[in-house]
Design a protein that fits this description.
heterodimer, A: mainly beta, 9 strands, B: Dna Ligase, domain 1, two-stranded parallel ribbon
Chain lengths: 92, 382
């Protein structure tokens, strides 16, 4: 929200950069993705896990995959261990 | 407390400030239960186990007080604000407008509104007026004529005087319990026994000086604030956010070529909600007025270490600005042309796509393992 330009008070609501976006991912039995947003995965380049904020009520438990799709697009997806959903994310 | 109506009917007290273990102001229910302001927290809870502790909200107090002072100014009074809750003003200039002293004071009470329990004391001298307001009932006007000051002050207790508790205890131990008793003592003897503070108290007990009320200059009121998507407790992150606020505040067109003399940094703390909670505020007067972002940032950044809890909103106020005259500026600032072009380009983008379309990316926690918490984008409309 930004105040009226004539007002001497301005409230700026900061947004997060690189927010995760829900993705449609099909995974193998071992949890690795084989299809992301209806596009097949050509190469699984890297895999890593992030476990953070375990001391809070909203822990972050993510399994990240950097994949190359058949179209040549390089993308990063993660499986949210807390909610069970899949997301794509830039800047990971 | 006003933001939490439920706390008003239960015994409530202002929670101790950081580094203190005594409760602050209390409500009538707490007073009835035996709690007193300044009581140790343990003692207060032992006296009244159901005591509700309300977090202090200095930023909220400041804002509410500012609204009251502005309302008085709008009604035509030149107001000198002493502390939040106490303001002095003269009626001489508006008495003819409103038809006399009492109508003018009624008008002032009306300007404050019925939300607050305003009380007005009127006298020819400041201390007598303050004492009258202190003993008046909510919504009452108490006028003390010049020839009544001595008799009015004489029976009042010593705790109306702005002196240390130790000094007051010392006076009470000597059998001096009323202002009239203090006023009756020889001034030299009081000064010898109690020092300059005692001498001042003695002078006030005799009515005080009749110094003129100096109406305040309107505050600069240039405020920038930044709401975070989640509570931030990391000092480094807050420093970066402060940097953004300083830059955007200095770039505001209302500042023009003026320099910043006094700034204030305030924060809304986590756990606080619209219905009540904590806030934090620190004001700082710069040794030399400045418009350099780095200098202001360096002066304010150490204050962030004093934050008692994570922050959901950080506010920067340019409280006082000075005129540009007397400052030697660069004839041609380095990179000024590029910056002008860039600013003009951004202005055109904003004009075509609307407010909030131009943002600055601020790295707040580049070390974070969670990508979306590493950087924020902050709208820029300057």
């Amino acid at each position: 929200m930004v105040a009226h330009p004539g007002d001497t008070r301005a409230v700026r609501a900061a947004g997060r950069l690189n927010e995760p976006r829900p993705a449609r991912v099909e995974a193998n039995f071992d949890g690795t993705p084989w299809q992301v947003n209806h596009q097949s995965v050509a190469v699984l380049r890297e895999e890593w896990r992030v476990l953070d904020r375990w001391w809070t009520e909203e822990p972050v438990i993510r399994r990240y995959f950097e994949v190359v799709l058949e179209t040549g697009e390089n993308t990063v997806v993660f499986h949210d261990g807390a909610g069970g959903a899949w997301f794509t994310q830039r800047g990971a | 407390m006003r933001k939490r109506p439920a706390a008003a009917v239960r015994p409530s007290a202002l929670a101790p400030e950081q580094g203190s273990d005594t409760v602050g102001s209390i409500n009538a229910a707490a007073e009835f239960a035996g709690v007193r302001p300044g009581m140790r927290l343990g003692e207060a809870l032992a006296t009244c186990p159901g005591l509700v502790l309300v977090e202090a909200d200095p930023a909220g107090v400041e804002q509410a007080w500012e609204e009251i002072v502005c309302a008085l100014e709008d009604a035509g009074y030149s107001v000198e604000s002493a502390t939040p809750g106490v303001a002095y003003f003269e009626t001489r200039g508006v008495e003819r407008l409103y038809g006399g002293l009492e109508p003018a004071l009624q008008r002032a009470l009306g300007a404050v509104g019925s939300v607050w329990d305003a009380r007005i004391g009127a006298a020819g001298r400041r201390f007598a007026a303050l004492a009258a307001a202190s003993v008046a009932r909510p919504g009452q006007l108490l006028v003390v004529r010049d020839d009544e000051v001595d008799t009015f002050l004489a029976p009042l207790p010593l705790n109306l005087l702005p002196i240390e508790r130790q000094r007051r205890d010392e006076l009470e131990a000597l059998g001096v319990r009323k202002l009239g008793q203090l006023a009756g003592l020889p001034g030299g003897a009081v000064a010898e026994r109690l020092g300059p503070d005692g001498r001042r108290a003695w002078s006030l007990a005799r009515g005080g000086t009749n110094a003129r009320v100096r109406g305040r200059r309107p505050p600069a009121e240039l405020v920038e604030s930044l709401e975070f998507p989640e509570a931030i407790g990391n000092e480094l992150t807050l420093r970066r956010a402060l940097g953004v606020l300083v830059d955007t505040a200095l770039a505001r067109p209302e500042r023009r070529d003026r320099f910043v003399r006094k700034v204030a940094l305030s924060a809304r703390l986590v756990g606080s909600s619209a219905s009540g909670g904590g806030s934090w505020r620190r004001a700082l007067t710069l040794r030399e007025p400045s418009a350099e972002a780095d200098r202001i940032r360096i002066a304010l950044a150490p204050k962030l270490a004093e934050l008692p809890a994570p922050v959901v909103e950080l506010r920067l106020e340019l409280v006082e600005l000075t005129e540009a005259a007397g400052r030697q500026l660069e004839l041609l600032a380095a990179g000024a042309e590029d910056r002008t072009r860039l600013r003009e380009g951004l202005r055109q983008v904003r004009a075509s796509t609307g407010s909030g379309s131009v943002c600055t990316v601020v790295e707040v926690a580049p070390w974070s393992r969670i990508p979306e918490t590493r950087a924020l984008f902050v709208p820029r409309d300057d």
